[in-house]
Design goal:
Elements lengths: L3 E5 L4 E5 L2 H5 L3 H10 E4 L4 E4 L7 H9 L3 E6 L5 H38 L5 H5 L6 H42 L6 H33 L14 H31 L15 E4 L3 E8 L3 E6 L13 E5 L5 E2 L3
Length: about 325
């Protein structure tokens, strides 16, 4: 096949493969539609969807509207730990590129402002009026160009600052800063558990559908179209893969939490009125607890309601670092 789309298990993305003649023959509207949902991969030589599974439905709809053949799936799914490692490696490379751009912009700014900076202390240069002679007009034009370049230098310095901020963010991602925060990790665990429960329900429902079809029943989808045995089996396989991926992700975050010391506090060893430390809020007062999260009161004077009562918040037990003294 020369014109097809394929689901890449390794990246979780959809890829469009064209021969040159087919792509050249597409209308401008079709090309714009492709660019809205795909990015060109120079190394892979194909169009790669912006979205990842399970959110590639729009990309697949575009591929089908173009008449491309479905080549199924290719590659092996990476574990979530491998995905995170790749993400950090890419972030490290991005940080290097951003810092390089910042350095270039800074040097460009210095070069643009150098002519004016070299005139510091030359009062005559800055105060000389425009003289309507050939030499006077030439001098005025040169000075105007120097001032214009000086202003452009500020734009380059702002650009440099922007790239350095991007580089700092990328460095944090590369260093896995978020994975050192128990609260962040616990929130991801809660999300994964919720997603896994939802996916398990969908899997079980699809399994029942497949069982009924195998028993000889005729079923229709929400559009009123007959459901084939092959389509039901493929859908079940997709739900199984998504559930497996979510459980893998859950296991990754659980291992991270264990490496950070696990969850020390719970509703069993805390009582109402206990003072505890949550890094993002400081010292707070424990009010009541649930199975995973708890309610607390702020102690800061400005964190109160109009009637003077303290404001309340919720957090995960994993966010507590220690008990506090009164």
């Amino acid at each position: 096949m020369e014109n097809y789309f394929v689901r890449n298990r390794e990246t979780g993305k959809l890829e469009l493969h064209f021969d040159k003649a087919t792509y050249a023959g597409l209308s401008d509207a079709q090309k714009s539609e492709i660019k809205s949902a795909f990015l060109w991969g120079r190394n892979s030589g194909c169009w790669i969807s912006r979205a990842k599974e399970p959110n590639t439905w729009k990309a697949q709809k575009i591929a089908e509207s173009l008449g491309l053949e479905d080549a199924g799936k290719e590659g092996d799914r990476m574990s979530f730990a491998e995905q995170m490692e790749r993400k950090q490696q890419r972030a490290e490379r991005r940080a290097d590129r951003y810092e390089g751009r910042a350095d270039i912009a800074e040097r460009t700014g210095e070069q643009l402002q150098a002519p004016i900076n070299s005139r510091r202390g030359d009062t005559a240069f800055f105060t000389q009026p425009n003289i309507n002679t050939a030499a006077g007009r030439a001098f005025a034009r040169r000075r105007e160009r120097m001032f214009a370049a000086y202003e452009c230098g500020f734009a380059e310095f702002r650009k440099s600052e922007y790239w350095r901020e991007r580089a700092e963010t990328a460095r944090k991602t590369a260093a896995g800063k978020e994975l050192q925060d128990k609260g962040f990790v616990m929130r991801r665990i809660n999300e994964c558990e919720s997603n896994a429960r939802s996916l398990k329900k969908s899997y079980d429902q699809q399994k029942r559908t497949l069982d009924r079809l195998e028993a000889g029943e005729e079923l229709k989808n929400w559009r009123g179209e007959p459901i084939s045995l092959e389509a039901a089996a493929e859908s079940l396989e997709n739900w199984a893969e998504r559930l497996e991926a979510e459980l893998d992700k859950l296991g990754f975050y659980q291992d991270i939490l264990d490496s950070l010391g696990g969850v020390t506090f719970s509703k069993e060893n805390l009582k109402k009125g206990d003072l505890i430390i949550i890094p993002r809020w400081g010292k707070v007062r424990f009010v009541r607890g649930g199975p995973k999260n708890f309610t607390f009161e702020f102690l800061q004077p400005h964190m109160t309601y109009a009637d003077g009562s303290p404001m309340r918040g919720q957090a995960a037990y994993a966010e507590i670092t220690e008990r506090a003294q009164a």
